Amino acid sequence: MPSVMVRIPSLLAEVGDGRKEIPVEAGTVGGALEALFGVLPQLRVHVFDETGGVRPHVSVFHEGRAARDRDGLAAPLSDGSVVTILQAVSGGSPASAQVRLPVSGWTIP
């Protein structure tokens, strides 16, 4: 079984044990996620939805390319592979989203 690294964003690391990189052994991207959940089971609900699919706001990458562009969760891994989980982040106040143009003084909402 290949030894691989799963990288998770800071928000998920806070839900877990603080680590952003978790070494696991797995033969596929999906297997790496399952191995991750074996170590940090509390992360499952943040990555998978109720049907067992990857949540819409979560992206899984294998070697820097979206897993959906390859073979999805069935993509094979080799020793040293890196699987990265990213979550979309949104929000903020309307005031923080405004851009002030320095020359004209206009504000773009």
Write the layout of secondary structure elements.
Elements: E1 3-7, H1 10-15, E2 21-25, H2 29-39, H3 44-47, E3 58-62, E4 65-66, E5 82-87, H4 94-97, E6 99-100, E7 107-108
Parallel strand pairs: 1-5
Antiparallel strand pairs: 1-2, 3-4, 3-5, 6-7
Q: How would you summarize what this structure contains?
A:
The protein is an alpha+beta fold. The protein has helices spanning 10-15, 29-39, 44-47, 94-97; strands at 3-7, 21-25, 58-62, 65-66, 82-87, 99-100, 107-108.
What features would you describe in this structure?
By secondary structure, this protein is α+β, with helices and mostly antiparallel strands. The chain has a single domain (about 5-109), classed as Ubiquitin-like (UB roll) (Roll). The chain is about 25% helix and about 25% strand. The protein contains 4 helices and 7 strands. It has helices spanning about 10-15, 30-40, 45, 95, and strands at about 5, 20-25, 60, 65, 80-85, 100, 105-109. The strands form 2 sheets. A 5-stranded mixed sheet has the order 2-1-5-3-4, covered by helices on one side. A two-stranded antiparallel ribbon has the order 6-7. The longest helix has 11 residues, at about 30-40. About 20% of the residues are buried.
